[in-house]
Amino acid sequence: MPVQQRPMLALLLRLCAMLVLSSMLLLVKLSGERGIWLPEMLFWRQLIPGVMILLWLGARGGLSRLRTQRPWIHARRALIGGTGMFLTLGVVQILPLAEATVLGFTAPIFAVVLSALLLSERVGVWRWSAVVLGLIGIVIIAGPDRAQLSPVGLGTGIGAAFMVALISIQLRDLGRTEEPITIVFWFSAFCAPVLAPFVIWTGAHHDALGWAMIAGVGVAGLFAQLLMTAALRYGDVASVIVMDYSQLIWATLWGWLVFAALPSPTTWLGAPAVIAAGLIIAWREHRLSLQRLSTPVHS
């Protein structure tokens, strides 16, 4: 049975997802300052959601939902996704939260380029113009001042966005045959064993607050994924994606309240261009999807 569309609920769910996601990134940054090594953080970030999914489905008698006929595709997705997550969480430990968040907004720009290169999709003037606008925004954000935005941090942030865009291509393929909860579980199942040796190596000696931060990252990551998935259940992508940019508000707020840091002037100038590029891409893809639906299929 088709799910009834509830646009306002979808927007609210996506807004909550961005709040939870920004809170997770705050915990990642704080844990890094406490000396918790990033690979160990990634291990718990993967293990906790995987275990929670197993327990939840086991209690409901739904473990059969995790069956898959495409294990190697999941493994490839885990390799790409694990690399992307390492960069995404790593840039948060290098750059201020707001700057790291803005760089993440370049993912739709790379998604357009990858769609043209890998999927041979026809990209028109609107989306190519958005790509150029987004790149101009990044140049402005980089600016002449390296005090706020180091070359290493800039490269890590752009690399993270590129990997997120590449993951979106993978998920588009997996989504044809797999449930979202199945994709999330196998991502954890493939990544956690690879990351486990790093936990053994570091010894995992933390105080109660350190363990609370680690647990918070895992739980927040799971709920952010579930909220984003639920938002797409009740609303279309072009509508709910607008709420993704609210993450910049939360990141700026956390940076000010916790670290007494505000975005640099170049970030304020370049961020609107990056956000506008993402919105143009979302709007254009929505228009193209409507055109495809309205075009009659001839046998």
Fraction of helical residues: over 70%
Query: Could you say which structural class the secondary elements and strand pairing correspond to?
Result: mainly alpha
Sheet bearing the most strands, described? none
Tell me the total number of β-strands. 0
| Unreliable segments of 5+ consecutive residues | none
Q: Give the helix tally.
A: 12
| Radius of gyration, taken over Cα atoms and rounded to an integer in Å | 19 Å
Shape: globular
- The overall number of domains is 1
How would you state the average pLDDT, rounded? Answer: 82
Beta percentage is under 5%
How far is it from the N-terminal to the C-terminal residue, by CA?
28 Å
Write down the secondary-structure element order.
HHHHHHHHHHHH
Can you offer a commentary on this structure?
With 299 residues, this protein is mostly helical. The chain has helices at 7-33, 38-59, 71-94, 97-104, 107-118, 125-142, 151-174, 180-202, 208-234, 237-240, 247-259, 265-294. The protein has one domain. It is 78% helix and 0% strand.
Quick tags:
globular, single chain, mainly alpha, 12 helices, 299 residues
